[in-house]
Amino acid sequence: MGKSVIIVGTQWGDEGKGKIVDLLTDSAHAVVRFQGGHNAGHTLVNKGKKVILHLIPSGILHEHVDCYIGNGVVLSLDALVAEINTLPANIDVSKRLKISPAAPLIMDYHIILDKLREEKAAVDKKIGTTGRGIGPAYEDKVSRRGLKVIDLFDPDNLSHKLKEILDYYNFIITNYYHGSAIEFQSLFNKTLKLADKILPLVTDVVSELHNLYSKGSNILFEGAQGTLLDIDLGTYPFVTSSNTVAGSACTGSGIGPKNIDYVLGITKAYTTRVGEGPFVTELNDDIGKHIAKQGHEFGSTTGRARRCGWLDVVALKRSVQINSLSGLCITKLDVLDGMNTIKICTSYQDTESATALGNNYSHDECKPIYEELPGWQEPTCGITDINKLPKNALNYIKRIEELVGVSVDIISTGADRNDTIILKHPLL
Length: 428
Ligand code: GDP
Ligand code: IMO
Ligand code: MG
Prior knowledge:
The chain contains twelve helices and 18 strands. It has helices spanning about 15-25, 75-85, 110-120, 135-145, 155-175, 185-200, 205-215, 250, 285-295, 315-325, 355-360, 390-405; strands at about 5-10, 30-35, 40-45, 50-55, 65-70, 75, 95-100, 105, 220, 260-270, 270-275, 305-310, 310, 325-330, 340-350, 365-375, 410, 420. The longest helix has 22 residues, at about 155-175.
């Protein structure tokens, strides 16, 4: 029997999903992206060689594996073609990268609108988006006016639809935001040119995934962003515009809920957030700076500094519930090496977690209550055997397991694919 595993971030993104997907791909036949777009930045390091992927699934470096972009992903043709060109020369995407005809397209007007909105928003209303047009593209999908990959097959119809959409967007861009209108012909020509490269990759992803599953192949579903950035269940409005939770793997790829065998939640040993919005355990002090420096906490997509803080178990427990997590993978344990004391937030003072996590709560309203654990001085970087972990590092992992009630099945001790302790392999 084959297995299908969903991998999701349990925090605000950048938990190390890319590394773990790349690692587990060794035992998989297919890797599927099901939501988000090129706002994601997934870092893969193998024997010191680093690759950052935004849209292409993190299985692409393994030549035996097919990579799928499902219908839930918003697809920028510019970004995809550019990313294909950055792949190592030995990777041939022509047979291994497959794209759903139902994926909505991110067009230039989405990107312009995303940036204009952020620029013009009052300071306390800025979301700190990646400026990739993600929000406006999902709006078009939901409003049923958007273009999809399938529209690229019929240039006449595409031309007709694009003219209509541009009328709408140019009105908003020029009249509401006082920006410059987008010219139809150059956008149309560019789109057709890029489409030539992409159309050969278009596949009925739903059928292929069901065929693979029924013939016993292992499939990985690679989440982007993190649970707290989910449009419905995250810290709204400071969220992304897709459902980032495990359930989204079904709607974003066409696999059914009964075909999911295991859900792996990726959790940093501390917390980071890039962009605006509440962050209860944020550290605006020397410890926060130390974690940022040790963890090289700069965004893989925008290069922005990530805000850092302690692990928030209140939020993590919520992630366990929302995603039906089967197991956890704790990443970046090595970043905490050498600290005297490590804190875990176990509750919020005077605030219902339901109120705090589901809404736009302010930092002042919500104070963390911490449990303190002793740190460890020995380096953990690159450890692959659980018995070699310092006693206090192991205690930290055990305490997280106890608090959230889910087993830690994988521990990551460095950026490299091999710097990993696998206690239970989700696919084997
Ligand atoms: P993703 O978006 O969830 O795939 O994560 P990112 O790639 O954006 O950010 C994670 C960063 O941490 C990347 O630079 C990884 O190379 C790095 N990383 C992943 N796991 C570990 C780890 O266990 N230890 C250390 N030190 N770095 C790690
Ligand atoms: P990966 O997959 C971290 C954040 C942005 C912003 C908010 C909305 O690498 O974990 P958007 O451009 O999506 O409309 O921005 O979401 N964000 C991420 N933060 N990791 C990501 O992806 C992110 N993708 C979006 O910073 O706060
Ligand atoms: Mg990232």
